[in-house]
Design brief:
By secondary structure, the protein is of the alpha+beta class. The chain has one domain. Helices cover 44% and strands 16% of the residues. It contains 5 helices and 3 strands. It has a 3-stranded antiparallel sheet. Helix 2 packs antiparallel against helix 3. The N and C termini lie far apart (101 Å).
């Protein structure tokens, strides 16, 4: 019995069939995780770039629209029209604009004004159009649902109670004179 058992063990040790599947089982989770991370990072980067682009175009319209007072809804629509990849942009985007003093600059509140599904009636923090030759600070915050919320990057986002993460873009500009 011992001899048959040891002979079977030797034959099993020499047999190399199935070694590729062992390597696959060890490496596949890492490769799949890397692919999920890459897709999520690409989508988030694209959304952030489109939010920045929409914000830049809206600010250009505000800055050069001499004599026109910027309207919250029109600014929001301009940003969303130029940030086409952000889903449900008009409902998820929150803007905050206020004048600032060039000589005594005060930063915006560190926590951005974002939408929250838990508080649908949350009032707008501030959207003050400003006057000519005045430094204005504009911040946009949009919430999005991560593609893979439990994957590597999706789990790293700080999310609210509904599982949405925030993208924030801000800019400063000077109102042009008439």
């Amino acid at each position: 019995m011992n001899r048959a058992f040891s002979k079977g063990v030797r034959r099993f040790r020499r047999d190399e069939s199935g070694t590729a599947s062992v390597e696959f089982v060890i490496l596949a989770p890492f490769l799949i995780g890397l692919m999920l991370f890459s897709v999520e990072l690409g989508v988030v980067t694209l959304r952030a770039a489109m939010l920045e682009r929409g914000l830049d175009i809206a600010v250009r319209d505000i800055r050069l629209g001499t004599g026109n007072v910027p309207d919250h809804d029109a600014t929001k629509a301009t940003i969303c029209d130029n940030a086409a990849i952000i889903p449900n942009c008009l409902n998820k985007l929150r803007l905050e604009m206020r004048p600032n003093n060039l000589r005594a600059y005060s930063a915006l509140d560190p926590t951005p004004d974002c939408t929250d599904n838990e508080e649908p009636t949350k009032p707008l923090r501030a959207f003050i159009p400003g006057a000519q030759n005045e430094l204005m600070v504009l911040r946009a915050c949009v919430k999005f649902q991560p593609l893979f919320p439990r994957a590597i990057l999706g789990d790293a986002f700080s999310t609210d109670n509904s599982g949405e993460a925030a993208l924030v873009a801000s800019t400063a500009f000077v109102q042009e004179p008439i």
